[in-house]
Design goal:
GO terms for molecular function: ATP binding; ATP hydrolysis activity. InterPro entries: ABC_transporter-like_ATP-bd, P-loop_NTPase. Keywords: ATP-binding, Nucleotide-binding. This is ABC transporter family protein. This protein has 151 residues and is mostly beta strands. It has a domain at 12-73 and 80-113: Rossmann fold, CATH 3.40.50.300. It is built from three helices and nine strands, in the order βββαββββααββ. The chain has helices at residues 51-58, 112-115, 118-125; strands at 11-22, 25-36, 40-44, 66-71, 81-85, 97-102, 105-111, 129-134, 137-142. Strands 5-3-6-7 form a four-stranded mixed β-sheet, sandwiched between helices. It has a three-stranded antiparallel β-sheet with strand order 2-1-4, with helices on one face. β8 (129-134) and β9 form a beta hairpin.
């Protein structure tokens, strides 16, 4: 029986320069992300962005066309979490990082407060959106944020 544990300081998973091509169509292009112990990631993007494809790679259901995927904590799910959604409202308050995908490309990745911004999410979803965070909960509204009107 193998009782080896992942490094206490190393990443839980690493995706390095991954491409996924199926039937001649690029589903992911040059995606790189490293998830460290204790991080809680949200993967966001519109339908067809590549979220499910990335999840299939992380679950070893699919293999990349190019690049590498290393899942170092297969039997230790409490080390980190990855949530895949296209609804910002579903992001739990414990999320520390985010990855934005659009048509198989990474729009942004990193600490959640740096990544989940109105500008970045609007670009990712190709629609003007206003993103807000209040009491640890995320919300999004259609349309660009406007300056208050003085009466």
């Amino acid at each position: 029986m193998n009782n080896s544990r992942p490094s206490e300081t190393g990443p839980v998973l690493r995706v390095d320069e991954v491409d996924v091509v199926r039937e001649g169509r690029a589903l992911l292009r040059r995606i790189s992300v490293t998830v460290q112990r204790g991080e809680h990631w949200a993967v966001l993007g519109p339908n067809g962005a590549g979220k499910s494809t990335l999840l299939r790679l992380l679950g070893a259901q699919w293999h990349p066309t190019r690049g590498t995927v290393e899942v170092l904590a297969q039997h230790h799910p409490d080390l980190a979490t990855v949530l895949v959604t296209h609804h910002l409202e579903e992001i739990p308050g414990v999320a520390t990082h985010a990855l934005l995908l659009r048509q198989g490309d990474c729009c942004a990745a990193g600490p959640i407060d740096d990544v989940v911004t109105s500008a970045a999410v609007s670009h990712c979803f190709d629609h003007p959106l206003t993103v807000q965070r209040s009491s640890g909960r995320w919300s999004v509204r259609s349309g660009a944020q406007r300056a208050p009107t003085r009466v």
